[in-house]
Amino acid sequence: MYNAIERATLRRLVPTVAQPNISTPPVDWQVNLTNLQAGCVMSKDENRYFRFFCSDVAKRFGAPYNFSVWEKLIPQVGEVEPFIRHATVALGALQKSIIVMGHDQKSPRNSHSLDPHHMFAVKSYCKALGGMRKAMAQNQGNLTSAFLACILAFCFENLEGHQKAAGSHAIGGSSLFHKWRLEKPHSNSTDIEDLDSVFAELVSVRP
Fold first, then answer.
1. How far apart are CA 19 and CA 139, in angstroms?
2. What pTM value is reported for the model?
3. Are 4 and 52 in contact (CB under 8 A)?
4. Inter-residue contact 69 to 88 (CB < 8 Å)
5. Which of 35, 36, 71, 133 is the most exposed place for a label (fewest CB within 10 A)?
6. What whole-number distance in Å separates Cα of residue 169 and Cα of residue 202?
7. pLDDT band at 30, cuts 50/70/90?
């Protein structure tokens, strides 16, 4: 099963048709973790890994820069967009696996080495991929979600040691983002500038 998942992630997850304009998040982005379940439906395990993403993973990835994207924008969008939520849950579970099991993230793992955290991460990532592709096929969602999907997919694949897939997500997401910026040169806000910074960083560190 895992080999099939790995092959499936080699295809870039970027829209091939025009998407609605990026939406600007409200000033107060901060996710209310206390009332999180009131805003979206998650299982007990999903809730735990989502909270771990917000409290641990987002801080790791956002420091020392781009904290607003990781600690505010991604969790907020995850509350309302299922495939972003599944991706954040996947990253939370994967990071927990790395911490608990001490895996070498530079080497790809196979199905025989999956611990419970890792197994949950892979299942959640598959759900995220399915949701992303469904949204693209039906021309649903918005560019904010598409940009964040590419960022999260890059991070998951990179942590898994799938460098080719990670690089594909970085290039595809960056191309989509900069194409949109050329079409909307006067669209400027803090979140857009932060996304620009994130994509620049992803492209610079890709394999």
1. 7
2. 0.74
3. no
4. no
5. 35
6. 9
7. very low
42/86 Cα distance (integer angstroms): 10
Q: For 37-83, how does the pLDDT look when each residue is reduced to its tens digit (9 = 90+)?
A: 445 678 999 999 999 999 999 988 876 667 789 988 999 999 899 99
SS3 annotation, 142-156: CHHHHHHHHHHHHHH
Which of 50-66 are b and which e, b meaning 16 or more Cβ less than 10 Å from the residue's Cβ? bbbbbeebbeebbeeeb
Cis before 64? omega within 30: yes
Q: Which amino acid is at 120?
A: F
So where are the chain's domains? 42-205
- Which of 125, 114, 134 minimizes the C-alpha distance to 85? 125
Residues 6 or more apart from 79 whose CB is under 8 A from it?
31, 36, 39, 40, 85
Token couple for 46? 């999903």
